[in-house]
Design brief:
Elements lengths: L1 E2 L2 H8 L8 E9 L10 H9 L10 E4 L9 E4 L5 H4 E5 L6 H13 L9 E7 L12 E8 L5 H11 L23 H40 L24 E9 H8 L7 H19 L9 E7 L13 E7 L7 H22 L1 H9 L3 H14 L1 H4 L6 E6 L7 E2 L2 E9 L8 E8 L2 E9 L6 H20 L1
Parallel strand pairs: 5-6, 9-11, 11-14
Antiparallel strand pairs: 1-4, 2-7, 2-13, 3-4, 6-7, 8-15, 9-10, 12-13, 14-15
Helix pairs in contact: 1-11, 6-9, 6-10, 7-8, 7-13, 8-9, 8-13
C-alpha cells in the first residue's frame, strides 16, 4: 500500500463531474507492418497483458480515507480485470478525421471509475476516411488519471507499451504480482492522524527555504521594471476560457515538421522549441479571439507546466511537476516580435523558478496537511471559485517531448501521436504540444460551450505557424 503525494492527491480532490482530471493520448497505427499485416484485438489484449508489470498504475486501485481526512492510498487491485479496461469500438463510415475528433472528445469527457484502476484504453477501427493515413489504420485512445501520472511519466508508460521493432516483445517480470486487500477503516484513521500531526512541521520548514529567494527576486523585478515597460507584469484579462466549464469536450490537432520549428528557432538567438510553440499558440489565440471580436487589449497569459523529475526519478510514476506563468503577448501583431518578447518572458520566469528551486516549489504543495489540502481542494472545485475570481492565466500550454524514433505496438507502426489535457474551472482551454518522430503537434482540448468551433481554432493554429515560419525564414 502506497499513499499518494500531496500533488497527486490534488487531482483527486479538485475533480468534479464537469471537470474530470485525467489526461489522454491518441495514437494512430499502420497495421501493415505487423507480422502477417494484421493486428487482432485478441493480440492487443495479449500484448498489453504481457506489459502490465512495466507500469504500476495499470493494476493499482484508489482507496480513499473516510471523510477525506488524509491523502488516498494506492493498493494492488485484487479484482483487476484487463477486459474492463481495454475496449474495442469502430467509427461509422466514412470514418474521417472530424468523426475521430468527436468520438475522442466524447470518450475523454467521461470520468474514470474510481472503483477500478484509473485508466481505460480504446482500440478504434474504421479510420479509412482520415486523410493521409494508410488503409486499415487503427487508433489507440488511452485515458489515465492525472493522480497516477504526469506528462513525462506518461511518455515513459508509452515506451513501456511499445517496441523499437515490429517483432519486439516485453521483458518478463522479475517478481510475481501480488494483490492486496483494502485496509480497514481503523488502520486508515490511525495513519491519517499521524500524518496530519507530522506534515505541518515539514511544510513550514520547506516554506522557510523557498520564500526568501522568491521575495528577493520579485522585489528585484519590481525595482528594475518601469511602468511603461511593455513587459512589466499586468493583470490577466478575462476571456471566454475563464468561465465555468461544462461536462462536454472538444478536440482538434494540427501537425508540423519539427525541422521547420527548429528553423524558426534560429531567428531569435537563444530561443527554444518551447518558445516557438508558445508563439504559435499565442498567434492562434490572437486570431481566434479577433475573429470573434473578443481580443483584449492586454496580453493573454498561459500556465506552462515544468517537470521537476530528476534522473533518479525516471521510471517512477505520479506527478513531479511545477510550472511558470508566461505572458503570450497577444497584443503584439508582428509574429517575430511576439516570439522575441515571449522568449524574454520565459527567461524571466525560468529565472524565478531557478532562484526559488523547482523542487522547493513542488515540495511546498507535497507537504500540506492531508485534511487541509483535501477540504480546500474540494471547496474550490465544488464552488467554482476559480471561474469567478480574477484570472491568473487564460489557458494551459503543456509541452511534452516524445521519442524521435518510430515506435511499434503489437507490431503496428505508430504514425501519429496526440495528447488531450484537462480543462478546469477558470482554465477551459488546454493546449498540449506533443512531438514524435520528426513531427510536432498542437492538440486542442476545450469545453464545448467555450469553443463550439474547434476546427476553426485548429485552422488558426495552422495559420499562426505559417505566418511565423514565413517571417522567420525571410
Amino acid at each position: 500500500m502506497e499513499q499518494l503525494s500531496g500533488l497527486d492527491a490534488t487531482f483527486i480532490n479538485v475533480e468534479t463531474p464537469n471537470a474530470p482530471t485525467h489526461i489522454s493520448g491518441l495514437s494512430i497505427y499502420d497495421q501493415s507492418t505487423a507480422p502477417g499485416g494484421l493486428v487482432t484485438f485478441k493480440g492487443i489484449l495479449a500484448n498489453v497483458e504481457s506489459r502490465l508489470h512495466l507500469a504500476s498504475c495499470f493494476r493499482r486501485r484508489l482507496v480513499e480515507v473516510p471523510l477525506g481526512f488524509d491523502h488516498p492510498y494506492w493498493i494492488e487491485d485484487p479484482d483487476f480485470d484487463l477486459e474492463f479496461h481495454v475496449r474495442h469500438i469502430a467509427l461509422p463510415k466514412p470514418g474521417d478525421w472530424r468523426q475521430l475528433c468527436i468520438q475522442v472528445a466524447r470518450l475523454h469527457a467521461r470520468p474514470l471509475d474510481r472503483g477500478k484502476p484509473l485508466w481505460e484504453m480504446y482500440v478504434i477501427e474504421g479510420l479509412d476516411g482520415v486523410e493521409g493515413m494508410p488503409p486499415g489504420s487503427f487508433a489507440l485512445f488511452t485515458k489515465v488519471h492525472h493522480a497516477a501520472i504526469d506528462g513525462v511519466s506518461g511518455i515513459e508508460i508509452t515506451a513501456a507499451l511499445h517496441d523499437l521493432t515490429p517483432d519486439g516483445h516485453a521483458t518478463p517480470p522479475e517478481h510475481e504480482w501480488i494483490a492486496e486487500s483494502p485496509p480497514s477503516v481503523v488502520e486508515l484513521a490511525l495513519r491519517s492522524t499521524v500524518n496530519n500531526v507530522r506534515q505541518p512541521f515539514r511544510f513550514l520548514q520547506i516554506l522557510g527555504k523557498a520564500a526568501p529567494p522568491a521575495i528577493r527576486i520579485l522585489l528585484e523585478q519590481r525595482r528594475d521594471l518601469h511602468v511603461d515597460d511593455p513587459d512589466a507584469p499586468r493583470e490577466v484579462p478575462r476571456t471566454r476560457f475563464n468561465r465555468k466549464v461544462s461536462p462536454h469536450r472538444v478536440f482538434e490537432a494540427r501537425t508540423f515538421p519539427l525541422v521547420d520549428v527548429k528553423q524558426i528557432r534560429k531567428s531569435v538567438d537563444g530561443c527554444t522549441v518551447n518558445d516557438v510553440m508558445l508563439a504559435v499558440c499565442s498567434g492562434a489565440l490572437r486570431r481566434y479571439l479577433e475573429k470573434h471580436r473578443e481580443l483584449p487589449l492586454e496580453s493573454l497569459a498561459a500556465f506552462a507546466p515544468i517537470s521537476t523529475r530528476t534522473e533518479a526519478q525516471h521510471g517512477s510514476e505520479g506527478n513531479q511537476v511545477t510550472g511558470m506563468f508566461v505572458r503570450l503577448h497577444t497584443d503584439e501583431s508582428d509574429p517575430l516580435e511576439r516570439l522575441r518578447r515571449i522568449f524574454k518572458t520565459t527567461l524571466d520566469s525560468k529565472h524565478i523558478t531557478q532562484a526559488v528551486g523547482a523542487r522547493s516549489m513542488t515540495d511546498v504543495t507535497q507537504t500540506l496537511p492531508g485534511a487541509l489540502a483535501g477540504i480546500s481542494g474540494r471547496l474550490i472545485a465544488r464552488t467554482g471559485l476559480m471561474s469567478r475570481m480574477r484570472p491568473i492565466a487564460n489557458c494551459v500550454i503543456s509541452n511534452v517531448p516524445g521519442p524521435q524514433v518510430p515506435l511499434y505496438f503489437t507490431g503496428a507502426r505508430m504514425i501519429a501521436s496526440y495528447g488531450l489535457g484537462l480543462p478546469m474551472e477558470g482554465f477551459g482551454l488546454f493546449l498540449a504540444v506533443v512531438s514524435y518522430n520528426g513531427a510536432i503537434s498542437v492538440c486542442v482540448t476545450s469545453c464545448r460551450d467555450q469553443m463550439p468551433d474547434p476546427a476553426f481554432f485548429a485552422d488558426c493554429v495552422e495559420a499562426s505557424f505559417r505566418e511565423l515560419y514565413l517571417a522567420a525564414v525571410a
